[in-house]
Write a structure and sequence with these properties.
This protein is α/β, with parallel strands linked by helices. It is built from 10 helices and 12 strands. Helices cover about 30% and strands about 25% of the residues. The longest helix is centred in the middle third of the chain and has 18 residues, at about 190-205. Bound molecules: iron/sulfur cluster. The site of iron/sulfur cluster has 13 residues, from loops.
Length: about 325
């Protein structure tokens, strides 16, 4: 089976000022040599602390940001070769804040209809107003909203309803791949569960593949078939959800698990939570970037960057001394 979305050795650098009183430019590597593949029908979770590069990776994956180096393939073709409309008909994104994808001056019906209108034009078809309205009413019903919501404005909805509108907008043109960037982190706990269940239902009924990004391992565990753990721009561990939650091999994953409810009761209390702050990407530590916070760090880790190696089929880790 070939991957729907592939990131091959993808990096993204930004040029920034060193500080408020130091105008000299500096280069920050937000994403560093990431290789990932999203298979048809799967959910690939991407987890890591805020500022580790997850959102930059998400924006590159949908073509909103070009990589500085490396290649992103959508259905085997370089993402940069797709026109924006072609791309939007195959891959869509759901953001943390639905306001960022909904125009407050447009009715939600008009916002939802837009991607479908553009996608149909790309394939030489113009849909009538009645056809668009019917399609919008249909997708509103599928995401659990009422047909009369079509003429309302975003401010008339609750946070959870707005995220449903954003999901409807992302899915109306049947894109196949959905990149969800912290889609529930701004919602109340009860609404979070409803939204996650909605995303699962939509995935099953529409045969979607998700790249699902969150800082919350509980959410990632609920949603994902496989999980990639990111630290300071790099993937440090990649495994199936079941394997990662029971046999984490990277001390960073272990520390994240210590802060999340454990699926394995025998390991409760055994794991040490994470201490310290993530280093600034402006001056990443030499060697293994995790060494200043790692309880297992040895002098060797301060000097040599560990490669990502496969411990066993489907389970890769970037650590000189895996657990
Ligand atoms: Fe810790 Fe060393 Fe592994 Fe890095 S390489 S995670 S410092 S043990």
């Amino acid at each position: 089976m070939s991957a729907l979305l592939e990131l091959k050795n993808v990096s993204r650098e930004f040029s920034v000022r060193r500080g408020m009183f130091d105008p000299r430019p500096a280069s920050v590597k937000a994403v560093n040599d990431v290789t990932l593949a999203l298979m048809p029908g799967e959910t690939l979770g991407l987890v890591g602390e805020s500022g580790c590069g997850k959102s930059t990776l998400a924006r590159m994956a949908v073509g909103l940001l070009p990589p500085s180096s490396g290649e992103i393939l959508l259905s085997g073709r370089n993402l940069q070769e797709w026109t924006p409309i072609e791309r939007a008909s195959r891959i869509q994104m759901v953001f943390q804040d639905p306001f960022s994808s909904l125009d407050p001056r447009q009715t939600v019906g008009a916002s939802i209809a837009e991607p479908l209108m553009l996608a149909s034009r790309a394939f030489g078809k113009t849909l009538s107003r009645a056809e668009l309205r019917e399609a919008v009413s249909g997708i509103l019903a599928r995401v659990g909203l009422q047909p009369d919501h079509i003429d309302r404005y975003p401010h008339e909805f609750s946070g959870g309803q707005r995220q449903r509108v954003a999901v409807a907008r992302a899915l109306i043109a049947k894109p196949g791949v959905l990149v969800c960037d912290e889609p529930v982190s701004a919602l109340d706990a009860s609404v979070q569960a409803q939204t996650l269940n909605l995303l699962k239902d939509m995935q099953e009924s529409m045969g979607l593949s998700y790249l699902f990004i969150s800082h919350d391992l509980g959410v990632i565990g609920f949603m994902s078939d496989r999980v990639a753990v990111m630290y300071l721009g790099r993937i440090v561990e990649l495994a199936s959800g079941a394997e990662l939650f029971t046999h984490a091999a990277h001390p960073y994953t272990e520390a994240l698990l210590a802060a999340a409810p454990s699926r394995d009761p025998s390991r409760r209390g055994e794991r040490k939570p994470l201490t310290g702050e993530m280093p600034s990407p402006l001056s990443p530590p030499a060697g293994c970037a995790f060494h200043p916070r790692c309880p297992r760090a040895k002098p060797f880790c301060h000097e040599q960057t560990p490669p990502l190696v496969e411990l066993e089929p489907g389970h890769a880790v970037r650590c000189h001394f895996p657990l």
